[in-house]
Amino acid sequence: MPSVKQRVQDRYGWIRLAEARNKLVLGHTALAPRRLEDAEVARLAPTLPARTGRALVAVVIPTYRRPEGVVRALDSVLAQTVEDVVVIVVDDGAGLPDLPADPRVVAVSLSRNSGIAGVVRNVGLRLTDSEYVAFLDDDNTWRPDHLETALRRLRDPDQPRVDAVYTALRRVLPDGRERDILSVPFDRRRAAGQAFLDINAFVARRSPAIRFSRIRRGREVVPVEDWEMIFRYSRRHAIAHVPVPTVDYLINPESYWTVWRPD
Fold first, then answer.
1. What residue spans define the domains of the chain?
2. What stretches of 79-224 show up as alpha helix (H) in DSSP?
3. How many CB atoms lie within 10 A of CB 263?
4. Running DSSP on this structure, what letter comes out for residue 249?
5. Are 205 and 164 in contact (CB under 8 A)?
6. Which site from 29, 95, 101, 242 is most exposed, i.e. has the minimal number of CB atoms within 10 Å?
7. pLDDT (tens digit per residue) in 61-109
């Protein structure tokens, strides 16, 4: 017979229990980051060109001390077959390298390091006003058809309407070898306990519900903020999986946020 703990997890979902604990124990750590986020948006918004809100898709690239990685990530966005994009690169206070001279690129730097990926992404979201939003971390890249593949499903009149999609991830090792393809159909019950939702593959219609947690999450804190956000978003929004690998996801042993075991 299942234990009481197992019955509670089955009914309510592990992620709900874990996040409830995070809010209780760590909720106070979100207060200062929220103030920083608000102040940075107020400071940066007047400096941005008017075109920032005019694109079909706004792509948010958070970055911190990865000059070569952020350029590779940005190049993969600029190479998309969907060209009506604005790319906002948000530096978490470390400084930016020289970026491609493309009118679709907007680069901003926070006045100080927040150390919270959710805050950095939220700033990028709040500084744009597009129809769709997408996200790419500075150690990953997209295949040229990533946005086209996602938008095709999002705008398909012959299929049930969805608010967001996520594609498959081609997970690669630091030496460039492919480890595997992560392609899991969306199931909210399964998502409550398994981390198969990744923000790099996520493209959505813009919504106030797309906001990342500001809780300060060390490596030991789970769920991570993108898994938590997508799961929370799915409560009232329809999500579909497109089983096409369009993201090259680096299994990065130097990741600031994720610990990868040798196996």
1. 4-250
2. 117-126, 146-154, 188-191
3. 3
4. E
5. yes
6. 101
7. 999 999 999 999 999 999 999 999 999 999 999 999 999 999 999 999 9
